[in-house]
Amino acid sequence: MQLTTQTDYALRTLMYLATREQRSKAADVATLFGISAHHVAKVVNLLSRFGYIRSVRGIGGGIELAIPPEQIRIGDVIEHIEGNLHLLSCVGSDESCRIHSFCKLRGVLAEAERIQKEYLKSVTLQDVIPTRKQLKPLEQST
């Protein structure tokens, strides 16, 4: 499985916000990671729609986590952003092919997906956030 750039940016945005005590701007996230502000803005809209972050307009506004980091499961975020993560289309459906009646591969891949999903749902944002000390060199170089 390879995640899309959109999911990568969503996870980075959540990690960044988890290190902040105050609201931030999407542009701050983009600058820190050296990524497109336009793409971060799109991701912010998605994360807001899914309830992971809160966006506040006006003076003193910005973006912040809407849920504590220990309650945000990485697997849930990935599922929300990515949607279907099946290794083959037949794993997630009753779609059949010529060898469907005797194919053992579908079961193997379904089990691999189950294990991966279970693991990703066991990891929280709290488990993966960098420390302020780790981010400091990146902040100074921007």
Per-chain topology:
Blueprint: H1 5-18, H2 26-33, H3 37-49, E1 53-56, E2 62-65, H4 74-82, H5 105-122, H6 125-128, H7 132-140
Antiparallel strand pairs: 1-2
Helix pairs in contact: 1-3, 1-4, 2-3
Report on this structure:
The structure is a single chain. 18% of the residues are buried. The protein is mostly helical and 142 residues long. α1 (5-18) packs across α3 (37-49), α1 (5-18) runs antiparallel to α4 and α2 (26-33) crosses α3. It contains seven helices and two strands, in the order αααββαααα. A hairpin with a 5-residue loop joins β1 (53-56) and β2. The chain has a two-stranded antiparallel sheet. It has a single domain, classed as Winged helix-like DNA-binding domain superfamily/Winged helix DNA-binding domain (Arc Repressor Mutant, subunit A), CATH 1.10.10. Keywords: DNA-binding. This is HTH-type transcriptional repressor NsrR. One of its GO terms (molecular function) is DNA binding.
Structure summarized in a few sentences:
This protein is mainly α. Helix content is 53%, strand content 6%. The protein has seven helices and two strands; from the N terminus they run αααββαααα.
